[in-house]
Amino acid sequence: GDACLYGTHTAGILSGDTLFQMLGIGATRGVFLTDVNGVYTADPKVANATFVPAIGVDGETGDLVFLEDDFIIAASESLHPEDTTGGFNTKLASALLVARSNTKVSIAKCGSDSAVNALR
């Protein structure tokens, strides 16, 4: 996120995820780059976290649809005290909102082959 001035005496942090949410609706595609390989059922540092390879959005309900298996995603706020932008929970919520507008959304690890492919 970036520091922004709000009014004359107030400052805050504007999340890149929030910007994506505001600008991504109606776009052809959007890509979130992270420091992990994508979406997991829990924090990927936890031993039992499972990688979720693909998620879709139901065209009628707007709900998440898991394309290969049924998963439960336990997204949470950031555990890093310096991160004031909401962590993965905010990222996933923003991605879902944008995907509901028929925008193809990818979440990939920065520098990975998946990220390169998503950006093409």
Automatic annotation (TrEMBL):
Spell out the InterPro entries in the cross-references: AceGlu_kinase-like_sf (IPR036393), Asp/Glu/Uridylate_kinase (IPR001048)
Record-level GO BP terms? terpenoid biosynthetic process
Domain Aspartate/glutamate/uridylate kinase, by residue range, is 10-108
Q: Name one GO molecular function term.
A: kinase activity
From which domain of life does this come? Answer: Eukaryota
The UniProt keyword set, sorted, is: ATP-binding, Kinase, Nucleotide-binding, Transferase
Q: Output the Pfam families linked to this UniProt entry.
A: AA_kinase (PF00696)
Question: Can you say what this protein is called?
Answer: Aspartate/glutamate/uridylate kinase domain-containing protein
Q: What is the lineage of its organism?
A: Eukaryota, Sar, Stramenopiles, Ochrophyta, Bacillariophyta
